[in-house]
Design brief:
With 233 residues, the protein is mainly alpha-helical. The protein has 7 helices and 7 strands, in the order αββββαβαααβαβα. The strands form 3 sheets. The protein has a 3-stranded antiparallel beta sheet. A two-stranded antiparallel sheet has the order 3-4. Strands 6-7 form a two-stranded antiparallel sheet.
Amino acid sequence: MKEAAYIIIAMIIFWNGVTHTNDFNYRYAVNHSNPVNYYYQPQPGNPRKLWGCPMQQNSWNSGIHPLFEPPVPSGANLILLTPAIFGAAAALTVGFSLYGRSFSRGYSKFIFFVNIYAIIASLGAGTYIFETLTLEERKDAKLKDIILPLITVILFFALLFNLVYTLYPSSFSGTIGKTPVTQLISFLSLSIGSISVGETFNVTPEKSGTQIMAAVESFWNLFVLSLLISLIT
């Protein structure tokens, strides 16, 4: 009997604490029909005690909501960016570790795989931007919301160009850096130019495989630009 009494007393204390805690958290409310009029809703028959317990739904049914509503999170799934992120990390690692070691065989199979992967990564990043800008919950989406996927795609293609050139130097020609860092900077410039104004900065893809890769990045830019224009107008 004593144990049961202790349990009942503990439950009463716990419930009282929860109620008062929620009184503190929920006491300020706003009537959405008059957003300027901030007030709190007293309980019927006890004007000194506020509606606070989440189970007390009368205030919600009357149109009273918490003053500070939690922000609606973006529905865009970050997993859509993982192909580009992992691909960029792999290209960075392999490109720098194999710098100065070129291959004479296997180009066709390698560039085919790279182009397929580039298409998959581009589709993922494009879908991420589409969801970010068009979901019903994110009508207030701004240009800053696409900075992450934009930077991810730029780095992904820059590192991919750098990897292909490292393994097969004949795939590109033009003004390309002679050290690992300057070489990467050259292809970073190519990636930025391809995704913005179509400028190559004197770095030219010489083979059809690398031309397709550059075209994929340019097409991704066209898709995102068209999406932004359609939402603005």
